[in-house]
Structure formats: C-alpha cells, structure tokens
Amino acid sequence: MSESVPLTILIADDTDSDRLILEAIVKKEGHRVVSVCDGQEAISAFIAERPDMVLLDALMPRLDGFGAARKIKELAGQELVPIIFLTSLTDTESLVHCLDAGGDDFLSKPYNRVILKAKIKSFSRMREMHNEVQIQRDQIASHNDHLMQEQTIAKQVFDNIAHTGCLDAANVNYFLSPLAVFNGDVIVAAIRPSGSMMVLLGDFTGHGLPAAIGAMPLASSFYGMVQKGFSMVDILREVNQKLKQILPIGVFCCATIVDMNFVKKKIKIWNGGLPDGYVHRAATGEVETIKSTHLPLGVLDDMSFRDDCQHIEMELGDRLYMWSDGIIESRNGSGDMFGEERLRALFDSKKQAEPVFDRILNSVHEYAEGERDDDLSLIELTMVEPAEVINTNLDYEPQRYGGLLEWALDLELKPSTFRMFDPLPLLLNILVEVPGLRSHSGNLYTILAELYSNALEHGVLGLDSSWKQTPEGFARYYDERKKRVDALEGGFVRFKLDHEVEGDGGTLNIRVTDSGPGFEHQRNINNSHKAEGYSGRGIPLIRTLCDSLRYIGVGNQVEVIFKWDADD
Amino acid sequence: MTGPVDTETLSMLKEVMEDDFSELITTFLDDAASRVGQLPSLLEQGDAKALRLCAHSLKGSSSNLGAIVFSDLCFEIESRANDNQLEEIEGYIERIEQEFLRVKSALEKLL
Fold first, then answer.
1. Which of A472 and A172 is assigned the larger pLDDT?
2. Single pTM value for the model
3. How do the domains of chain B map onto residue ranges?
4. Could you give the C-alpha distances from B5 to A146, A222, B2, B11, B26, in angstroms and in order?
5. Does a structural domain hold residue A331?
C-alpha cells in the first residue's frame, strides 16, 4: 500500500545494484525518486530538487555520507529533512558518527521493504508535524509582536495622562519601573489649588494590558479633579465608583491615598489593601504604621464605600513611606521572600549615613541576587514648608478652581410650574458645579427641600402642618395640597442663590421668598426648641446643617448662609 | 548446506523489480566480479583500508541479493583487514572466489 502523500526522496548509494533495489522499493511505495552515486552529487541534487527525505550510503567515494549529511542539514536550515543512513556498519562508534553528522536513522543491508516503508511513513509524519509547529510558532511570534506594540501604545497614552503630576517636587522621592503600569502599579501626584499635595499609589490586580487599563481612568479622574479643587474624599469615591463600573469581578486596585497639608503640618490618609505605610519620625527615629483599614478600590459600590481616613500630624522632616507589595514579596535565589520584618529593620539602623530610601532599594536589590527586581514601587514624602512645594505645573490655570466660583442665580417659580416641576434637582445640579460644595450635596438638598416645602405649602398654599400629626391627617394634608395647587391662580416662590469665594473656601447665600403672608417668627427666633409658629418648618434641623438662618421682614423670606472650606 | 542464494530474498526482489529484475542481476554480477578481482592485488599491496572498503561494499551488495554465505566471507575479510591481520586473508580470498562462481551460476539461471 502506498503513502497518501507522495514524497520526493533522494537516494545516494555508490553500489549500483543496491541503488537499483532501493529505487524500486521507494517507487513502489508511490514516491518520486532522485538517484545519485556519490556525496558530491547528493548535495547538488539536494539543492536542485529539495527532496522531502534523503537515503544516504555511509561510505561513498569523493564526498562520503557523513560529509554530505552535514552539508544537507545545513542547507535545509529550519526545515526538517530526515536523513536515513544506509549502512551495514554495526559498531557503535560508526553509528554515533552517523548521528553526529546529522543522521536521523539507519537502514541496514539487506534492505527490508517493510522496514523502509515504516521509516518513510514515520518520518513523513514527523515532517508534517514539524511544519505545523513552525507555522504555529510564527503565528505566536506575530501575535506577541502585536501585543508588544499594543502595550507600547497603551504606555504612551498613559504617560500622556500622567505627565501633569508633581512627582518631581523637592519633597518627593520615588521608584517606579518604567513598565510599572503593566505590572499594575501606578503613582499619581498633584498639588491642589489650596497648596496641599495629593498622592495616590495604586496596585491593580493582574499583569499586562488588563492591569494597565484601570490606570487610565484612575489617572485622568485624579488629575482632572485635583486641578478643580476636589477633596481627597471626592476623588476617592469617584475613582472607586469608576473602577467598580469598568473592572470585571476579581479585578481591583489596592491603593493608598494621602493629602499632605504643609501649612497645617498634617496628613489625611486612606489605605485600602496595600501593605502598611510608615511614618518615620525625624526626631525620635520611630516608625508609626498606617494599616490598611479598607477594601481596595473597585470592589464596593458607592453606598457601601467607606471613605473615613486617618489623620496624622507630621513635623518638619518627618517622612511618609508608601509601597506596593513588590518589596515584601521580592524573592532571592532560594525563593524566600524579603518580608516585612526585614523592611521594618531597615528603618532601625542608625549607623549608616545612607538615606533610608536608598537603603531600601539597595537592600532589595542585593537580596534579589540578580533576580528580576523592578517589580517594586516605592514613594517617600517629606513634610516641608509650603514654600518648598511650588506648583511647577505649567498647565495650572490662573483661576483657582475650574467650575463655578462667583455667581448669583435668580429663579422664580409660578403656579403652572408648581403643579409639575420639582426645582430641587435643577438647583442641586448647579450647586455641585462648585467643587467645594459637591461633598455637601446631601445637606444642601435637605436645606433646599425644607425651605421650598415651607415656602410652597405654608407660604403660598397656606396649609397647616399640624394636620400631619395623625395618619388620617397626613392623607388629608396631601389631598388638600393637590387641590390647592391645582386651583392656584397666583403666587410664586423665588430662589436667590449667591456664591462667593472666601480664602480657601466659599460662602453660599440662599434666599427663598414666597408670596404668602409670612408668620410670626420674631418671638421664636432665639427659641430653637419650640416648634410653634414654625409649624413643622423643620427649622431646628436646618439650623444644624448651615452656618446661619434668619427670617426677614414678615417671615415670607428666609436666608440661609452655608460656608465651606478646602480642607473638607 | 545452504544454497548460494536465498530463494525468498530473490522472489521478493523479483516482485519489487518487475521487468528490471534481469538488469539487477547483471549489474550485480558485473560489479561483484570486478571487486572480487581486485582483492588479490589489494592484498599484495598491503592496503588494509582499501581492502576493508572493498570487502565491506561486496558484503552489502551480496546480502541484498540473498548470497548469505558469500556475504559472510566478505565480512571475514573486512574485519581482518580492519584489525590489520592481513596474513589470514589470502585463504579467504580463495574461498570467496569459489563461492562467487556458485552464486553466479545460481543467479544466471534466473535471467
């Protein structure tokens, strides 16, 4: 039975009768034969015909089988061209010589047709497999190239986003491998308009592009919001929410974020999932640890997210250290980890003049004994005087905040609007465009809602809130409310909002005026406990939420003053 | 005593070679006659290496034709030449020449 795929087989044998027999056997198996009588001709024939397989007599005149085999293997290059030595040499030394010369197998004399057929079949299969493997190898290499290209581009994009940072400030010392973003590590740092410095060290799960993907929205949110004056908590929440939305389950970002205030000499710090941060006291040499007390970013939804921070005072010269787990998990040649104890011990030794930062890097480098050790990220922040931290950011705009700063708004609502429109979301939307008010949106909503409901229901519609004491009265109240709104022909509620920037913060002035007759507020103005006259206007509550509240004129106008501070 | 040529081998060859069977026989006989003829002079010259190669080649080609006895004799010469024991070779050459006649006679019958 012949092979399914006809091959071209080169036969080189100097004995005519032997060659004739081989030719006949191979042809009978369905293959094409190229036949020569010595080594030199074998090489020429190989070049001319590029056969799939070679049967080579070991001992031939001119160039013998060994020499021919070497040359043919060289010519074949990457291709697998099996060479079968024809020999009745049986001593081991000769056989080894055949293999060394490039032989893949032997066929001894007398030639056995069945054995030759088996060898041809087996080598043919091997050749096919070899070809396939090469094709796949080339595909893999090509895909790998693409991946590398994609990573290069991704890195460029990331660098463009991250370049606005202040990592070159005088009080900052950091180590981050150039390809760190593909290890999932990211450091972003910027100076807030108020002059304090905000720094975030993040460690995304995973490697490669998936790890880098999260760093983009993190960096862009961070830099965008810091520039606009948003607080650390605002930024934390925003980044957490974004990451929760976009990252798949199981992918998250361990992070530590710190707001360093050089005027007040204190820091606000939040650690979710990273190793302990260290505060190294210049005076005593002691170390305080800042433990992770939160889940990493991207795990919890906004409602469950905890943004409570630790507040720590730092003297001039005190240093804050933050690192990813790369240092602790560095391994030496035996596979042992560097570990937290070794790291902690580096802070104790007073003997060296070598700064701690360098000490850490050098120790890890030595410990790793030449193993890859660029997977670590480390940042050191020193508490300095405010003047030393000048904002060298060229993109810094003259105004202190992007967003609403000094403005006033006048909105009057008339009867047709009362029926169908709730002005509160609109007003709140405008208010949160003032960066400093955003974190107070909950309280502002409560204040506005209460003032609006008072103005409309008590002022314009003249409803009596004492009805709301009983369940039936409640239903009656809202029934009556609807009736009166529908029947209303005149009346208004006016909102006047005024916002000014003041120092590091601002003042919001809210005035709500209604067309009603007012009420007797004078007697009760200092009585914060009595509800009478206020008739359930919820004033005691509002008093706790704002800086001041007063009624003007006959009581149909209320003014609330709300202040905010950049330190929030 | 075994015949000079193995009949099974020959019938296998006949099947493989088909019409070229005769050509094979004559080619072998010519080549073998020539090599057998070279043996005495090579021995006289004391050329152990050439003797070895000649005997080796003969051994291979004759085995392919089923001439087992002949092939074994060639091996005897080949290994002695390899060990440089040229003294004993003369005797073998005689025996080879005789065996060759028998092989030739058997093969020519098949032409």
1. A172
2. 0.57
3. 22-108
4. 67, 95, 8, 11, 15
5. yes
